[in-house]
Specification:
The chain has 422 residues and is mainly α. 76% of the residues lie in helices and 0% in strands. The chain is built from 21 helices and no strands.
């Protein structure tokens, strides 16, 4: 029985599809990691992937786990030290009672955080800060500001190589130097960010007519909060340096997070549990399960088949290949999440040896496409988890209706921008 199952790729695809659907829909309100983990476990039990292959798949995610741990530690210690409350007060003062001005301010900050700290940092670090801003300004409708954290996390995620871990997956060991990356993605990124702001601002125009308070208490930033702020800034500098030297980002991020947390806790004389209990530990088994699902899919030969199709299409028309692959991945990421999609896409483009603008369109599809649905990217899943911690929620259908308006214009303009300079 096991051998028959193992011989059929349909069984693997079916299990992967059901596990992904569980992550997306969260039946019985079970956490996302349960569904990803259950799918991975079932694949091993049925012999569709061996235990050693599953462990190998899990091990491939080591850099991602370290990166996420570092970012979650930074977010937890910043929250504990009162940095978010202090920033919220500053933002409220700058907004001067204007909901629209506050929206633009949050969007600008989200862009900077995504560019220099990654889209996952925007979801993990910025979301609780924005929730604090909404509370401080007594905004009756906080959702427009929280939505910014989700959409800009993907829209600005290809400005720099470090802006999205998926970028490292797509290019692998062939990452372009920073000075080659910037001119290649500057215009596509600018178009993506502008289009996302314009459409999101237009869709939220009614909510942004609300009045917000500018008369709020201004808390004093503690020494621990200052130290947390310097830790976040230092982490951004470390990531830029690591990217410039072509180093993996996970370990530097983790060490920066641990060092910042240790210094802040020592200063405040608090125990480590005050920070560790704020870390969303379920994210790690979720990512591990997704890596195992990808490992199983690769065994079915799907990557080599897709590489053959892409290579044939590129030989026929590189422009057509770029548009077709970019759009297909933008949609596909919302069916399987952009982490596994990026892993498969990176391997496919490597095998197919496609022209550079085709690879760029693939990367844009993987990075920007997830703005269509709540589970299109790991960053958006992290955003959902952060929302739940703040007592907020956004339904899948609500997000999809908005994403269907926001994502397509940004995608079309960004891919078109790839061809602007030939």
């Amino acid at each position: 029985m096991t051998g028959t199952l193992a011989a059929s790729p349909w069984t693997t695809w079916g299990i992967a599809a059901v596990a992904t659907a569980g992550v997306i829909l969260r039946p019985f309100a079970w956490p996302e990691f349960i569904w990803a983990g259950a799918g991975a476990t079932l694949l091993v039990l049925l012999g569709l992937v061996s235990a050693s292959e599953a462990l190998g798949g899990v091990a491939k995610g080591t850099d991602v786990y370290l990166f996420l741990l570092g970012m979650m530690l930074l977010a937890a210690v910043a929250r504990h030290a009162g940095l978010f409350d202090w920033l919220a007060a500053k933002a409220a003062v700058l907004a001067r009672g204007s909901a629209a001005r506050l929206f633009t301010l949050v969007f600008a900050v989200g862009t900077v955080v995504t560019v220099f700290l990654s889209n996952d940092a925007t979801a993990v670090v910025l979301t609780p800060a924005v929730a604090a801003v909404a509370r401080a300004t007594k905004a009756e409708q906080p959702l427009p500001y929280l939505l910014v954290c989700a959409f800009i996390a993907n829209a600005a995620s290809f400005v720099l190589p470090i802006s999205n871990p998926a970028n490292l997956v797509i290019y692998g060991s062939h990452m372009p130097p920073l000075l080659a990356w910037l001119p290649r993605y500057a215009l596509p990124s600018a178009l993506s960010i502008f289009a996302t702001y314009a459409v999101l601002r237009w869709t939220q125009r009614a909510a942004l007519r609300q009045g917000i308070s500018s008369e709020i208490e201004r808390p004093r930033l503690s020494a621990g909060g200052t130290m947390a702020a310097w830790g976040i800034a230092g982490t951004a500098a470390v990531l830029l340096a690591a990217s410039a030297f072509g180093l993996q980002l996970g370990l530097p991020t983790f060490l920066a997070g641990v060092a910042t947390a240790a210094l802040v806790l020592l200063r405040s004389r608090s125990g480590p549990m005050t920070v560790l209990r704020d870390v969303s530990w379920g994210v790690l088994p979720l990512v591990a399960g997704l890596f195992v699902l990808v490992e199983a899919l690769e065994k079915t030969g799907v990557t080599s088949d897709l590489a053959g199709l892409l290579q044939a299409l590129a030989q026929r028309s590189a422009t057509l290949a770029a548009w077709a692959s970019g759009v297909a991945l933008a949609v596909g990421c919302n069916l399987v999440n952009n982490l596994p999609a990026g892993l498969v896409a990176g391997r496919v483009t490597e095998i197919a040896n496609v022209p550079e603008h085709v690879r760029a369109a693939v990367l844009i599809g993987v990075d920007l496409g997830p703005n269509l649905s709540v589970t299109g990217s790991l960053a958006t899943i992290l955003w959902l988890i952060a929302l739940r911690r703040e007592g907020q929620s956004v339904g899948a259908w609500t997000f999809l209706k908005l994403g269907a308006l926001v994502m397509p214009p940004a995608l079309v303009l960004a891919i078109a921008g790839v061809f602007a300079f030939g």
